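Entry type: protein chain
Record version: 2
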Amino acid sequence: MKKIVCLLSTATLLAFSPVTLAGENTTPMAEAVAVLDQVVADGKLNFAVAAVGNVGGQTWSHAAGYQDAEKTRPASPDNIIQIASMTKLVTTIAALQLMEQGKLDLDTPISAYAPELNELQVLKGFAPDDTPIFEKVNRAPTGRELMTHTAGYVYEIWNANALKGSQLGVTPSLFSEGNYLAAPLAFQPGTAWEYGINTDWLGVLVERLSGQRLADYFDEHIFMPLGMADTFYELPENKLDRSVMMMARAAEGLVPLPSFQPTPMKKGSMAHYSGGGGLSSTVKDYGRVLQMLLNSGSLDEKTLLKAETVNSMFENNIGDIQPAALATVMPTLSNIADLSFGEKATFGLGLLIHSDGIDGGRKANTGSWAGLFNSYYWVDREAGTYGIFGTQVLPFYDGVAIETLLEFEQAVY
């Protein structure tokens, strides 16, 4: 399997022979069930859920393990999980809707919509005495660059300069009470690819151009049309019993995290809605988004995006720039992460595009992304199928989670 062989043992691959795509029959996928059940039985994950669907809907789902560390609440496919950066796809769809309405031009510098970004700076590094070295930005990034992570914004989880700046108090931190959106860029817009708070700024544009708070816009223009009753920023009190405990992989094994635990909140109570993360959902609900993309932007006689817009999401939007693996500088939150799994990739609008696919798995030009707590999805338009795998554990790109994801994918195909 080319470069993926380092992630999956030969013995494992031989154990999972190819099966008919889930969308082609209704027989439960025994191999996929075994993948999830075994990783929990071995004590490597406390909770795992997965689903597969096609243009007609979700055709298979399964959950293994437990919602809680005490193992008193068995897992279910309708469990609500925190999907973190899987929120980015929803925000991208919202922004593309506004593009179709003529409210957002993807290639106009976003300072046209956010004038405060006329004075952006690039943090180049630090002098020997830790004085930050700034450079004036040539121009503000565009909406397209926000969607493709070529705008220059980064996350301090994977960028040493951003982390140092936050530690020294010279730049705002994503994890502090300050305005993290006021962070400087790490490079001139359009010159490189690096994962960051780009989609958070895209969410700000959605709010400004629509006149709605992001959560309200999602409800009215995405969640309600798609019938997504279990997707939200604020977890309702009456759905807390379906949520899943957040775990961490520590030296002593899997332990509950003191932070990031699901907490009920009153609807509309959050001061800020992040376009880059924060949603909770189920595999059934999130599958509706992916099913809509497989159906070229429409579902149940409702059109959320034009077909040509969906096509553009799955095309190379970054030219010769190459997406890179995420080299962690905060190992408690993330391992080194390569979401292309060592294969050729580019970036579309809100999606990593697997140019040549993955041997034995997703086909060429499949779109995908992930969430910090080890949730992952793909949308394979060539095969006409989507897949979702999720757990609730840190750090990101957990070795067990990735191995399980790829074994699950092999079973699907």
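Comment: Residues 52 and 151 are 33 Å apart (CA to CA).
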